[in-house]
Amino acid sequence: MQRYKGIIAYDGTGFSGYQIQPNKRTVQSELEAALSKMHKGMEVKVSASGRTDAGVHAKGQVIHFDSPLQIPEERWAVALNSLLPEDISILSIEKVNAMFHARYDAVGKEYRYRLYLSGKKDPFQRHFAYQYPYPLNIEAMKQASRFLIGEPHDFTSFCSAKTEVEDKIRMIHMIEFLTEEEFLTIRFVGNGFLYNMVRILVGTLLEVGSGERSPKEIPMILEKKDRSAAGRTAPAHGLYLWEVFY
Q1: Residue 103 falls inside a structural domain
Q2: pTM over 0.85
Q3: Is residue 102 part of a domain?
Q4: Torsion region of 211: left, alpha or beta (phi above 0 gives left; psi -120 to 50 gives alpha)
Q5: pLDDT tier at 139, thresholds 50, 70, 90
Q6: Are 62 and 7 in contact (CB under 8 A)?
Q7: Is 226 labeled as catalytic in the residue annotation?
Q8: 27 touches 88 (CB < 8 A)
Q9: What is the span of the domain harbouring residue 123?
Q10: Among 229, 228, 243, 156, which residue's Cα sits nearest to residue 197?
Q11: In whole angstroms, what is the distance from residue 38 CA to residue 196 CA?
Q12: Which of 11, 53, 87, 167 is an active site residue?
């Protein structure tokens, strides 16, 4: 039995998230169905670096699985892609140590949130960027972001009330604002992110950018450890799991 590590990309629009759910189309269920076909009906379980919600995309999700098949590394991606739907792509597959774990060995992640700032409706962006046609003070958003980076914080205020993990201390290493024509991409790099954390951070930063909040409110929001203290949850379709670090 050999363990394999895969990097995959997917358009989250047509999925009810990454993780298997009864009677719903998910990324994991499609991956395991394709692997089962390759293995003549044998069940093959896939583990990922983490879940993504319905509508969230991935450019660099990492998975692992075990297989008894003797297939050259370079053939795995070709074989799996021939069995997978158009909205999932296997970017690479490689052999790894049997102890490797896509989730527990991850030391950091990068997420990106894409905003379409034009007032014009663009049907080609409706699934891939959140349209925000209002004036934004990006400098104020940058000021607010400085309170969030560089040291560990308890992000209870910035995660869903449904978050199951008890330890909500995380460290964000970088928040970067990338502007290109009518788009603003906010790049988050950290040692880990809680359920809905990036989307709530984006929603709060947008409230700062629109003048609803002051950048100086961020430390108080962190201190309250209360979801209701932070801003709205930005829509799922602007979010991308960009890269996982090991």
Answers
A1: no
A2: yes
A3: no
A4: left
A5: very high
A6: yes
A7: no
A8: yes
A9: 108-245
A10: 156
A11: 34
A12: 53
pLDDT tens across 35-57, in order?
Answer: 999 999 999 999 999 999 999 99
Going through the chain in order, the beta strands assigned E by DSSP cover: 2-10, 47-48, 57-67, 88-96, 108-116, 130-131, 153-154, 169-170, 172-180, 183-190, 239-245
Instruction: Give dist(CA 106, CA 109) in Å, integer.
Output: 8
CATH number, position 42: 3.30.70.580
Q: Do residues 174 and 230 share a domain?
A: yes
Express as a percent the part of the chain with pLDDT over 70: 100
Are residues 24 and 74 in contact, defined by beta-carbon separation less than 8 angstroms?
no
Which residue, among 5, 238, 210, has the nearest Cα to 99 in the 3D structure? Answer: 5
- The torsion region of residue 31 among left (phi > 0), alpha (psi -120 to 50) and beta comes to alpha
Residue 142: closest CA among 94, 184, 182, 175: 175
Compute the mean pLDDT over every residue in the chain, rounded to the nearest whole number.
97
Instruction: For tokens 């158009």, name the residue.
Output: 86
pLDDT tens readout for residues 162-219: 888 889 999 999 999 999 999 999 999 999 999 999 999 999 999 999 999 999 999 9
Please check whether residue 183 is in contact with residue 116, taking contact to mean a CB–CB distance below 8 angstroms.
Answer: yes
Neighbours of 151 (CB within 10 A): 7
Whether the CB-CB separation of 95 and 2 falls below 8 Å is answered with yes
Residue 213 and residue 119 share a domain: yes
